[in-house]
Amino acid sequence: MGCEGPRELTLVGAGLAGSLLAILLSRRGWKVTVYERRGDPRIKGYESGRSINLALAERGRHALRAAGIEERVMRQAVMMRGRMVHGRDGSQQLQRYGRDDSEAIWSVHRADLNLSLLQAAERAGATVHFHRRLHTVDFDAGTARLIDDRDDQPHDIRFSALLGCDGAGSALRAEMVRKAGIGERSEFLDHSYKELTIPPAPGGGFRIEPHALHIWPRGRYMCIALPNDEGTFTVTLFLPNHAAPGSGDPSFASVRSGAEVRALFERDFPDALPLIPDLEHDWERHPPGLLGTLYLDRWHLGDKAVLLGDAAHAMVPFHGQGMNCAFEDSVALADALDANPTLERAFAAFEAQRKPNAAAIQAMALENYIEMRDRVDDPDFLLQRELELALQQRHPDRFVPHYTMVTFMRIPYALALERSEVQREILTEATHGRRDLQGIDWEALARSVHERLPVLGETQ
Ligand code: FAD
Ligand code: E0Q
Q1: Pocket residue to mutate for ligand 1, from 54, 106, 293, most atoms within 8 A of Cβ
Q2: Which residues have CB under 8 Å from 70's CB, separation 6+?
Q3: Domains of the chain: which residue ranges?
Q4: pLDDT tens per residue across span 150-181
């Protein structure tokens, strides 16, 4: 099968989802035109020279594989075996993500990744127009206006369908809301983030363990750091916007100047402070980033437009799955376009398949903030993790740890969430009031696992 009519599609946004989708569709014979607000990264540096990195996991790798560029991306990726948890006393503890190095995640440069995807998109035959910001859409007439932000000049185009890959602040979504009211709701967290940099060691090389995602959990706030292949780390500090009255906690309202951020690091992250020589400068140069979840009732308007990636379901970053999910969306949409006779049917099938899964990872990402900032250094958490791994060993086809289902498998996120909830109950009940696994009733646990968790392969 495959959609009838002119095999032409117009993509809005050449970010992560957009450039990957452009590759997949071009390779399948669609005529693809992409409009991107920013300039061509090959001509002018990206993101003011900062390296921002992202954790790439199996869902994302699988999508890159489908587009034929996994190998190219993995060449520059840095393996992260687990979380390195930094205590207040300077202690460090590595918590492995999986059973061995075959279960690891990978730190990749956002800008390098985007560039590789763009190049592959053009090589596959897609046309990418830079400096074209979507401004307004007339869905009935099939026309849209784009603006070149260098000279504010409008450029009008015709389209048969628009695929919205224009990120969390999507202009296409705003136009869909204006036209038809697609049930948009945003929930901002009362927390924001700042990015800081750890440079390489004086003689070159990494200043802290490269093969880990570093976390400094501090209860209601935290810091993380991900490695870059050139020896730097990108540090992200997550803080509340306002502290609870009387808590004495830092917040973006109370930590304003360079001196105040230094005092915060001296108190709460003393081992990280000497690693960040430009702390004050990094702090003052960029405003805090917002964190929120975006929910929509509908992702598509007939056969005229559909949203994917952050434009459809922006989420908080605490599971490291936003890009992975956006890539999974791109593959699902390309598949739906092949499998359905009309664009409208393809968009509807894509939405029906992906919306419950996006909602599930959005919920899991929100939960993971509390886990990361408050629980990873807690004895109860570590005991539950120990039991989780033991149950996986005893019942590998039934009891698969939550993190593994999300990160190292491609089962639908909604199924991962459903099974995680059952597993969490089993873990909490079995570890209640315990300090270790001595004398635990493995037979009762086995019965519980068999009753409550069907074999994973059968439920997919
Ligand atoms: P984007 O990558 O934002 O791309 C949107 C593109 O559209 C951009 O190129 C933009 O310039 C363009 N655009 C915007 N408006 C217009 C317009 N009007 N007209 C034309 N073009 C337009 N995800 C992970 O998987 N792992 C992580 O470790 C991770 N860490 C994160 C850490 C932080 C602090 C944050 C904020 C996010 C993180 N994410 C992570 C999430 C990830 O960044 C996003 O989910 C991902 O970028 C979504 O891809 P996208 O293509 O939908 O949007
Ligand atoms: C990952 C990898 C921004 C960010 C990205 C991430 C993760 C975290 C905490 C954060 C989750 C985890 N995690 O370690 O459980 O796995 O991507 Cl804050």
Answers
A1: 54
A2: 61, 64
A3: 8-77+109-186+292-368, 188-290, 378-452
A4: 999 999 999 999 999 999 999 999 999 999 99
